Amino acid sequence: IISIIFAMLQSAYFAYNSAGSAQKPLVLQSHTKQEPVSQSLPKTIPSADWSQVVKMVQPSVVAIHIKTSDGKIDGSGVIIDKQGHIVTNYHVISSAINSQGKIKVQLKGGVIYDAKIVGQDPSTDLAVIKMENPPKDIVPAKLGTSSDLKVGSPVAAVGNPLGLDSTVTTGIISALNRPVKVTVASNEDGGGELVVTNAIQVDASINPGNSGGPLFDVQGRVIGINSSIASIPNDLLGGGGSKGSIGLGFAIPADLVKNIADQIIKTGKVEHPLLGVTIADGEGSVNNTTYTGAYVRDVVPNSPADNAGLQRGDMIVDIDGNRVTSGMSLRGYVRRYKKGDKAVITYLRDGKEIQKEIVFTDTDKSLLKQNKMLPEDR
Fold this sequence. Notes:
- By secondary structure, the chain is an alpha+beta fold.
- It has helices at 2-23, 26-32, 50-57, 90-99, 254-267, 304-307, 327-334, 365-370, and strands at residues 61-68, 71-79, 85-89, 102-106, 112-121, 126-131, 142-143, 154-159, 167-185, 192-202, 214-216, 221-229, 249-253, 273-274, 277-286, 289-299, 315-319, 322-323, 342-349, 352-359, 361-362.
- A six-stranded antiparallel beta barrel has the order 1-2-3-6-5-4. A six-stranded antiparallel β-barrel has the order 8-9-10-13-12-11, surrounded by four helices. Strands 15, 16, 17, 18, 19 and 20 form a six-stranded antiparallel sheet that branches.
- A hairpin with a 2-residue loop joins strand 1 and strand 2 (71-79).
- The chain is globular and about 65 Å long.
- 42% of the residues are buried.
């Protein structure tokens, strides 16, 4: 009898805890859990030997010069292979598309080569150009990964700010997955293209002309492409806004850069996935705790989101272990995927945390139009 009672109590205990654990926000808890931190620092903290790193990487960085009927545009780029392919920002070379302007790239030492556009992707502000008749001793950069970066790690930006080629600035990673929204001119429809990037934020000095240039780690690997800077609003400066570095620079993460560059080199174009939701910033609660996230305003029929069971009113808070804190944050993460990729979406509904796997498809423009979806609501 005692054995039977014990077994019943034990079963009840496990049933109760299993039911209770289903209510716990396990994914959200993993983001808010505080890891133990040592209060003692090492006696000596090694510093980066940037002189050696710069000597190794400078040959792979180019200054980009574009002459158009409206004048001259300067930018930066980085060589990524022996064939002479160069990654840069779309906004650096966009004027050459409309005006048929000539693109020239300048290597360290002042040697200049003609270059042509291989392909571009306005929605991520990335482009690939290719040197014509590149030298046999061309030095491609080593592409790193942005998946294991840490805030506080030292970085160096190399580029062509204000026409000063091979300029090096150093700093640290100030933040990761910082949602940054800018608008660049699009040649596809004559309008503006909204670029949303969950960027690497750095305090290394970045100025006009650095755009398209590489961000290096201490091992000389490209971990991002410098693309934009923040400026002090005009109203805070009495009408004279600052267009130079104020220590808030942003770089496109290397993993996204590799994804886009590979597609452009292979096919000359880029396919972006469709999630199939219209979204807004919002808040959701579970276990008496409120979290920010991406509020689902609507779901496109037969889209990946619809097939995974997402509904109007759900609050997306995580995608593949990446914390989604806003609608713009979700857009930035979705841009990283390719057609056919799978991802696990975590969302809140009726005070519960739910996980579902989705399979991304490419963007169906007719589907967007029929459901009045904006291109950024992917």
